[in-house]
Amino acid sequence: MSTSDLKQLLYTINLRPKMETDIPWLRAHLAEEWGGEPVLVRKHAYFPSELPGFVAVMEGPGRKELVGEVTYSIEKHVCEIVTLSSLHEQMGIGSALFNYVETIARAEGCRRLQLITTTDNLNAIGFYQKRGMRIVAVYPDALEDVRKQKPHIPRIGMNDIPLLDELRLEKRLA
What are residue 165's phi and psi, to 5 degrees? Predict the structure, then answer.
């Protein structure tokens, strides 16, 4: 039995709306995973700590910790997932957060659910495609524009892939 399987037996994971008390954790997490705020999505600067979202809380014997988050923005019948991350893979955290946002988007009358990721993030690309999202646009050299505001973004990304381009993924909801 894997460590992930044991955690699932000993702990429960609950989702809830992001609260003001979650913001310090979210900002620290964003600094580590995203290079901090703002998060740039096609030249739009988002501040996830100010956006609506949900967090995943792992609770168990003597332990309660945040283990995932999703933030989003809804404009003109389009829901943009700005950030989505899980600290523990293969436990359903990311899937649950994605499903929450999709449910909200549908309830708000959104026609599309979309997001941007980088071409080096193979796990994310597969994750989103399994949930019905399709690659609808490629933005060559998009990271060069982002580096003008965030020069600390590395040149080599995950899987030793050069960090150059962005992908837009989209799921039609209506």
Answer: -115, 160
